[in-house]
């Protein structure tokens, strides 16, 4: 879809050619009518293309990265980034994006009032500045989603929540990579002779765009570090829970060994006292239960905790020799203070 826009501001001295959701017919028009190189269009269509600025015959090409507006149905928490191509001619500017973008849509609908869009350079800065703000907004949204997933993970330790955290981690990696590329692009725009600023307002807006982009990078790094620590902590919790479950199963298995030994002994083909009594089976069941309970207590953590508590209370009680030593030590310290 190719749309020409000349109504951004009353003082607009160029034509903005807005190309989004590009088709083969649009590529033919851009190649034949606007004389844009097919190699440049192929780079813009590449989802992994990095941000840069370069000079071609008759025009300047700027490629930046914007957050994608489309969401994956299978992975709704994964937000990717797409390249945006900006081609600067003498009297017009062409923006090329293979998908729709909220950044371009905001500028096209004039939802952003503080952007200097009177010149082509101002429109480029407006796109980069708006992109940084959209990144910040999406990062805050991702952080809220992370908090919700963490609440669910506290209630139920399942693999599904960890997979959701992994999807959020992917989004943060995509955002961090794209923001770092945009930062290098903004630094080049301050130094390159191919991009000349026309007023102090544009220079101030470029500095604001650099500041917002750095803030987004810091937010992405902080959220990524916190998320990495959270995933490691919950992975350790899941591992500990598995160890506890295996320990309990081991205790149950060992507890069942004692009554099995008794029943096996009584099941031997030998004469045993009381075997002719009609209540012998009750005595046997009671003995099995008693042995099982005693064995469970001996090998369980409760006995170990009681022993540790008793040892700790015993260690807190100081012997007479220890009390005399501490009294002499306290007296020597007081004497040193007086001297």
Q: Can you give a write-up of this model?
A:
The chain has 339 residues and is of the alpha+beta class. It has two domains: 2-240, Beta Polymerase, domain 2 (2-Layer Sandwich); 241-338, no CATH class. Helix content is 63%, strand content 11%. Strands 1-2-6-5-4-3 form a six-stranded mixed β-sheet, with helices on both faces. A hairpin with a 3-residue loop joins strand 5 (81-88) and strand 6 (92-97).
Topology, element by element:
Blueprint: E1 2-5, E2 15-20, H1 24-32, H2 38-45, E3 52-56, E4 59-67, E5 81-88, E6 92-97, H3 102-108, H4 120-155, H5 159-191, H6 200-266, H7 280-299, H8 301-316, H9 320-338
Parallel strand pairs: 2-6
Antiparallel strand pairs: 1-2, 3-4, 4-5, 5-6
Indicate how many domains the architecture comprises: 2
Broad CATH class of the largest domain: Alpha Beta
Taking pLDDT < 50 over at least 5 consecutive residues as the criterion, the unreliable ranges are: none
Strand content: 5-15%
Terminal Cα separation, in Å?
91 Å
The helical percent reads: 55-70%
- Tell me the name of the CATH homologous superfamily of the largest domain: CorA soluble domain-like
Count of discrete alpha- or pi-helical segments spanning 4 or more residues: 9
- Global outline: elongated
CATH fold-level label of the largest domain:
Beta Polymerase, domain 2
């Amino acid at each position: 879809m190719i749309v020409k826009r000349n109504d951004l501001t009353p003082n607009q001295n160029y034509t903005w050619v807005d190309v989004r959701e590009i088709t083969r017919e649009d590529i033919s028009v851009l190649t034949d009518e606007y004389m844009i190189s097919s190699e440049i269009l192929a780079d813009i269509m590449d989802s992994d293309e990095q941000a840069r600025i370069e000079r071609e015959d008759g025009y300047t090409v700027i490629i930046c990265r914007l957050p994608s507006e489309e969401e994956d149905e299978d992975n709704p928490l994964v937000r990717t980034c797409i390249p945006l191509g900006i081609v600067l001619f003498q009297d017009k500017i062409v923006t090329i994006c293979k998908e729709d973008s909220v950044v371009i849509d905001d500028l096209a609908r004039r939802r952003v009032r503080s952007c200097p869009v009177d010149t082509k350079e101002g429109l480029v800065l407006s796109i980069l500045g708006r992109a940084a703000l959209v990144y910040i907004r999406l990062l805050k949204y991702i952080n809220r989603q992370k908090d919700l997933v963490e609440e669910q993970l506290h209630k139920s330790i399942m693999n599904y929540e960890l997979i959701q955290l992994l999807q959020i981690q992917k989004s943060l990696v995509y955002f961090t990579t794209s923001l770092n590329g945009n930062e290098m692009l903004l630094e080049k725009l301050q130094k390159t002779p191919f991009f000349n600023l026309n007023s102090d307002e544009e220079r101030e807006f470029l500095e604001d765009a650099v500041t917002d982009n750095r803030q987004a990078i810091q937010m992405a790094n902080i959220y990524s570090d916190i998320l990495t620590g959270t995933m490691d902590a919950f992975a350790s919790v899941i591992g500990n829970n598995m160890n506890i479950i295996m320990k309990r199963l081991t205790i149950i298995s060992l507890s069942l060994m004692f009554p099995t030994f008794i029943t096996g002994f009584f099941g031997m083909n030998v004469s045993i006292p009381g075997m002719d009594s009609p209540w012998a089976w009750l005595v046997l069941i009671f003995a099995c239960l008693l042995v099982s309970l005693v064995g469970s207590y001996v090998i369980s953590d409760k006995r170990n905790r009681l022993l540790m508590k008793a040892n700790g209370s015993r260690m807190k009680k100081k012997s007479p020799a220890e009390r005399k030593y501490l009294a002499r030590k306290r007296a020597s310290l007081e004497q040193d203070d007086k001297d």
